Amino acid sequence: MNQKCPLIKKQCIESACTFWTHMLGMHPQTGNPVDQWGCAVTWLPLLLVENSRHARGVQAAVESARNEITQRQDVLNSAVRPATQRAPIEDVKHEQLRDH
Predict the structure, then answer these.
(1) Which of 19, 69, 70, 80 would disulfide-bridge 40, Cβ 3.0–4.6 Å?
(2) Which long-range contacts (CB under 8 A, 24 or more apart) does 11-17 make?
(3) pLDDT at residue number 66
(4) Would you say residue 40 lies in a domain?
């Protein structure tokens, strides 16, 4: 590989290093499959891009769920509002029931 280690500034020791990692998946920018070994430190920019992509997806899903919940709550509030605006039912005394 003949790359310089970003941590010790010497030639990369590859599999003898704790940061030597196998990456398997899809490249977030190109969509090409990734199946290779490399330094975890050098993988960080790629992983940060992938993490940001997923965070945007989660944010969009949360916003969509919030909009749906808000819409359903508005429908429920509209249905309940007329019932709460009616005059309250008067208490019926026990003696009144006997008279009828």
Answers:
(1) 19
(2) 12/39
(3) 95
(4) yes
